[in-house]
Amino acid sequence: MNGWKVKPSRRSKVDVLINSPAQIKLSEVEDDRDRSGKFCVIEICGKARWVEEGRYYDVFRIKQEENKSIYLNRVFFYSTMEGKLLFGTPFLDNVRIKATVMKHFRGNKIYRLKFKPKKNYKRFYGHRQEMSRIYINKFEINNNLMDREQRKYNFFRDDSIYYVLNRIHNMVRPSLELKHLKKHFMDYLNKFCSLKFETFYKHRGNYKREKMLRNILKTKKLSKRPEVQEEVRKIEEEKESRRLNKYDPLADFDPVANECFIREHFYV
Prior knowledge:
plastid, four-stranded antiparallel β-sheet, Ribosomal_bL21_CS, bL21-like, rRNA binding, alpha+beta, 268 residues, bL21-like_sf, 26% strand
């Protein structure tokens, strides 16, 4: 009992940390920085970054003008003010980040040296990376983190700009999903797209048949058969009709129909 000491509990340490003068002073500072404890881990420029509201971060060059807004949709997970963690698979579909491009600049110069021994070869050069500084405005949470079935809008799927890229990026088994995409893409081509793209996908199976006919026509005996000549005539007429009837591919493009097609066929 002589050497026994009372160890301070973890709860007392947390209370001291929350009620410390440093935390009180930081809470009174008005610098538009969020100190509530919520944060996101996102993928940007091929790297995972920890971001918080009211702070700026330097990333590789972003193709956007200065003082313009961007949305960051690739959110790995999000931590709420209460400490609840929400993990994506691999990205969250109900959280996105609104940021502003503050400025574009070039990073510090990095010097490199190439040297080959016994070859009298030595090269010394530098490189400055193109960078952008972004300011995190706020985290936009859709429908208060409700279940997927109850949401009215889905940041991850309903955005027609990011939909295709996100869908391809998240394919776990592309060999199975690409068949499904190709099937419905064919229906879309037959309804809305031009003959040029329609024939490219629709008549890809005729390539082998045309190749066989070319080989047949090289032989004199087979080329004189009436069934071969009839098949060649059909192919030539089909090519001529396609050439005469082709028109602008964007003539029948309808963004409303495009979004309706995405909602109808690609939702899982």
